[in-house]
């Protein structure tokens, strides 16, 4: 991620949303104020019953003295907007299995996990659990402290790469829901690999930039350009990058379909902090796999991306 342009690197998506507060200097447990105890300083229409005001303060959605301004009202709306996509998936698993596990990859400051926990998991009387996977140790420590402070016992944070989490004994054999929001570069692909290995029922991805496919397009440009006029689409460097990014998401969708998932792709509307606001939601339906697998293969061949076959594998891995 260090090689990405600074403006893109660290979550325009979450630039405002995810500024979790640093752990309080004093380790004293926080008062567990909830929205029912919200002061008159906040508009009751903005905050849902039972929502943790401590969390909203930690997310900088509320000021320390519990106030909300125009900007934070907008942030909260965006949080609810994302939640509205994920909530039905959580409910689906809860109804089918009684409890659920969710793994959030490239969790960063874990604002997504915290919001999901506060709005959905907190009320469940079962062993449902959210795991946050993050390579930056200090973010893992901060999230652990915040979860403890809020009494969110069904949350764990693991200092692991997405790739290593696939075989980590700290995670369950199967996982119901996998999320990855702006997980850098190929971490989204590792999250897909994780989700397939863990037989996830639902996968929610908002991919970040992925440089790998663009690099292969660039490398093979000379050979490709000779034969096919469509290669004009990625002749200029900026087009190589953008087209590479687009193709990456297309390949990801085909890969998921080739593993039996139904895939929908939409825009995370209102997420104007980010240039990367493509939302991919995949639901396991055991759909026929052959055609998407063939299409994926064809796209790789057509674009001279044969060497990416392993990245976008379609056969089940043993
Ligand atoms: C752009 S931030 C997004 C954070 C959060 N998901 C959000 O949307 O606010 C990407 C995060 O992924 C982490 N990350 C990058 N590559 C990773 C990997 N291979 N495994 C685990 N975490 C990774 C980074 O340290 C960073 O915190």
From TrEMBL:
Identify this protein by name: Methyltransferase domain-containing protein
Taking every annotated instance into account, which residue ranges of this chain make up the domain Methyltransferase?
A: 74-215
Top-rank taxon: Bacteria
Give the signal peptide range. Answer: none
* Biased composition, class Low complexity, residue ranges: 23-40
Q: Where is this region: Disordered?
A: 23-49
Q: Which Pfam families match?
A: Methyltransf_32
Q: Which InterPro entries match?
A: Methyltranfer_dom (IPR025714), SAM-dependent_MTases_sf (IPR029063)
Organism, scientific name: Cupriavidus pampae
């Amino acid at each position: 991620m260090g090689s990405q342009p600074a403006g893109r690197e660290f979550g325009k998506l979450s630039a405002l949303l995810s500024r979790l507060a640093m752990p309080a200097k004093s380790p004293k447990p926080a008062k567990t104020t909830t929205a029912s105890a919200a002061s008159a300083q906040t508009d009751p229409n903005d905050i849902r019953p039972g929502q943790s005001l401590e969390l909203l303060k930690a997310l900088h959605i509320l000021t320390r003295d519990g106030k909300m301004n125009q900007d934070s009202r907008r942030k909260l709306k965006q949080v609810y907007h994302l939640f509205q996509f994920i909530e039905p998936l959580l409910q689906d698993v809860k109804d089918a299995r009684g409890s659920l596990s969710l793994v959030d990859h490239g969790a960063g400051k874990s604002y997504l996990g915290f919001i999901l926990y506060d709005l959905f998991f907190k009320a469940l009387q079962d062993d449902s659990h959210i795991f946050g996977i993050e390579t930056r140790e200090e973010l893992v420590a901060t999230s652990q402290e915040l979860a403890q402070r809020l009494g969110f016992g069904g949350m764990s944070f693991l200092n692991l790469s997405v790739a290593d989490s696939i075989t980590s004994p700290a995670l369950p054999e199967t996982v119901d829901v996998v999320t990855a929001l702006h997980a850098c570069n190929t971490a989204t692909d590792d999250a897909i690999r994780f989700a397939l290995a863990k037989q996830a029922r639902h996968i929610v991805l908002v991919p970040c930039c992925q440089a790998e496919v663009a690099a292969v397009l660039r490398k093979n440009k000379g050979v490709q350009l000779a034969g096919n006029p469509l290669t004009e689409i990625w002749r200029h460097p900026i087009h190589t990058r953008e087209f590479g990014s687009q193709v990456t998401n297309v390949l990801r969708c085909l890969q998921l379909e080739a593993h039996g998932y139904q895939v929908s792709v939409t825009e995370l509307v209102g997420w104007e902090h980010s240039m990367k606001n493509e939302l991919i939601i995949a639901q396991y339906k055991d759909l026929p796999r052959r055609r998407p697998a063939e299409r994926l293969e064809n796209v790789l061949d057509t674009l001279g991306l044969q060497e990416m076959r392993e990245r976008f594998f379609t056969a089940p891995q043993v």
